[in-house]
Write a structure and sequence with these properties.
This protein has 345 residues and is mainly alpha-helical. It has one domain. The chain is 48% helix and 10% strand. The protein is built from 13 helices and ten strands. The strands form four sheets. It has a three-stranded antiparallel β-sheet, with no helix packed on it. Strands 4-9-10 form a three-stranded antiparallel β-sheet. A two-stranded antiparallel ribbon has the order 5-6. Helix 4 packs antiparallel against helix 6. The longest helix is centred in the first third of the chain and has 42 residues. The protein is extended, with a radius of gyration of 35 Å. The termini are far apart.
Length: 345
């Protein structure tokens, strides 16, 4: 009779033999061997490979994002994304608008509000202000209507006409809505990746960071020709803070829920430019053509003179090309939103 005891001992579960552990099968059948040492090594190698490839993918993604942001920054430094500007003779432009009284020692505007439709011989009306028939302007008009309380509050605090504030905001918003540069604002402004870069803009008024800091500076510098006047610095002050940090300025301008500071910086810019020209002997307080143009081209190009030209960046609305200054002027002189932003003379 065959010795079964010895065979059972060889195939008993848990008995270790070279290369693995035998599993007991039905009596008399050959057992399988589990190669546990090799499988553990293979699992470890697989985990290492997955981790290594995941690390490489993450690193590559960050490298691509970094190159993209760096490329955009360099392009902005060289002005690749700048909107082309132009200068248009003021006399040529105002040939189709009510005439303004121009004096050598003082510039004033006495134009009445005009309608954006023209009566033709057959009795019908045709639009002459195509900008205000656009879908983009319809959105802007609704936004300005909702913000009327805050704009009029800023107007009372600064002494700047509420309609003048709106007149420089309208072309800025139209430029955002109709330009390819809107893509960049959607991509970079929310991320704040280049939050302090001088070529990025913030807020409803489209302020460059350095321009916003100069607005703050001129509320305090009494020796500057742009000095905003007494009491204006208090409007920007934080309790217990002597000087606004860069982050505070950008946070104020980028606040999508509270537009007060967006409009305040706009009004202060207008006030500072107006004061500079006033000190030089020119009253431009009611000159949207001058103020809108200067708002677009900035402090450094503000040179008081008796024959200022309207101009600024070109903006295409409803297939019609305007300059920044033109759009600000046609809005100011139109009957758009006059119930909440009356024309000042």
């Amino acid at each position: 009779m065959q010795d079964k005891t010895k065979e059972f001992a060889v195939y008993a579960p848990g008995v270790t033999v070279p290369g693995g552990v035998y599993i007991l099968q039905p009596y008399g059948e050959k057992s399988d061997v589990i190669k546990d040492d090799g499988s553990k090594k293979e699992n470890k190698n697989l985990i290492r490979k997955i981790f290594r490839w995941a690390s490489l993918v993450i690193f590559a993604l960050f490298a691509i994002i970094g190159l993209l942001f760096s490329g955009v920054f360099v392009a902005m430094q060289f002005g690749i994304f700048n909107v082309k500007g132009s200068s248009v003779s003021r006399d040529q432009f105002f040939a189709t608008l009510p005439k303004a009284d121009i004096k050598a020692s003082s510039i004033s505007r006495t134009a009445p509000s005009t309608s954006c439709v023209k009566q033709v011989e057959d009795g019908s009306q045709v639009p002459i202000c195509s900008w205000n028939t656009s879908e983009e302007y319809a959105t802007i008009r609704d936004g300005l209507s909702k913000d009327s309380d805050v704009i009029n509050k800023v107007s009372k605090q600064t002494g700047v006409s509420s309609r003048m504030i709106a007149a420089v905001v309208v072309p800025e918003q139209l430029r955002w809505f109709t330009s390819d540069r809107e893509y960049f604002k959607k991509m970079f402004e929310p991320l704040k990746i280049l939050g302090t870069a001088s070529h990025m803009t913030y807020g409803i008024g489209g302020f460059h960071h350095d321009t916003a800091k100069r607005v703050e500076q001129y509320t305090e510098d009494i020796n500057s020709p742009f000095y905003a006047g007494d009491g204006m610095a208090a409007l920007l002050a934080f309790p217990g803070v002597d000087k606004l940090a860069d982050g505070d300025t950008l946070a104020r301008l980028s606040d999508s829920k509270d537009h007060y500071y967006s409009y305040l910086y706009v009004a202060l810019f207008i006030k500072e430019i107006t004061n500079q020209w006033e000190k030089a002997g020119y009253n431009i307080a009611n000159r949207p053509d001058v103020i809108a143009t200067l708002y677009n081209i900035g402090f450094d190009k503000s040179v008081p003179k008796s024959n200022p030209q309207i101009g600024g960046a070109e903006i295409t609305v409803n297939t019609t090309k305007y300059t920044y200054g033109e759009l600000g002027t046609v809005f100011y002189s139109s009957d758009e939103l006059t119930a909440i932003y009356p024309v000042a003379y």
